[in-house]
Amino acid sequence: MSTAVRDQAEGLRRMVNVRSVRCVGVLGPRDLDLELLADALADAWQQRGRSVVVLELRPDASDRRGSGAAIALPPTAAELPAWLGALPPVDVVLGVLDPLERAWPCLGFDEFVMVASARPEHLTRAYSQLKALSACTGRTSCHVMFTRTAAEAANVPMQNIQNTARRFLGCVPEALGSIPDDAVLLQSAQLGLRAVEAHPRSPAVRVVRLAVERLDSMAPRTTDWSDWLQRLDRAHRLAQAGA
Questions:
Q1: Within-domain flag for 197
Q2: 4 lies in a domain?
Q3: Based on the structure, what is the number of domains in the chain?
């Protein structure tokens, strides 16, 4: 069998793959270690019997600090079709995104978790990303998760985000929980461990697991795996055409 025929056969197999997938984007300031949180969310979902892949979709992702094997975008546009074709079908895709730096991957996601802290610069960045997400995708619905912030300290900044989003974007983001100033996620990554397994009773892990349980209880949006691959490819082509 020739290479062309093999590639065509593989493409047809993927086209008829009707596996349902949930696509969740994770956004927020870079210095809040989104990669660590994405890995922890992935681990929590895996403990609930889901297969998960984490995609690093921000530009210049070489500063990744997580312990998981996130898959980064290929360096050239010509490699994207093969990259998409090599992705394993899973139940949940977690994409680490930044619509201010690279907007087109956001079009491949249906749900979003915005990460912030109580610091003013993080709140400003979170709102800017939410505004960019709305402009890019037309979607303004998202969940907000605070990190490095005690639960009681997150109440007022959460209300500020909700009020600002309601006034200017016509949406009200939902609170998803607040991770206290607990270094277990970073420490576990530095040791090559998965925090959800290694420290199941830590405050950070408890919040992550509760967040995943809550997301699972919210009638999640799903799409067909093959449709999702095509959607991401179309988004990239549109971005290339508009560049």
A1: yes
A2: no
A3: 1
The CATH number given to whatever domain includes residue 122 is 3.40.50.300
Distance separating alpha carbons of residues 195 and 187, to the nearest angstrom: 8
| Structural domain that includes position 142 | 27-242
Check if the beta carbon of residue 94 is closer than 8 Å to that of residue 24. yes
pTM for the model: 0.88
Q: Which residue is listed with tokens 């997580």?
A: 66
Query: Residue 206 is encoded by which pair of tokens?
Result: 């408890």
- Asked if 16 contacts 87 with a C-beta cutoff of 8 angstroms, the reply is no
What are the pLDDT digits (tens) for 83-133?
999 999 999 999 999 999 999 999 999 999 999 999 999 999 988 998 999
Q: What share of the chain is helix, strand, coil (3-state, %, to 5)?
A: 55, 15, 30
| C-alpha separations of 242 from 58, 97, 130, 157, 237 in Å | 19, 20, 22, 36, 9
> Which residue has 């809040």 as its token pair?
32
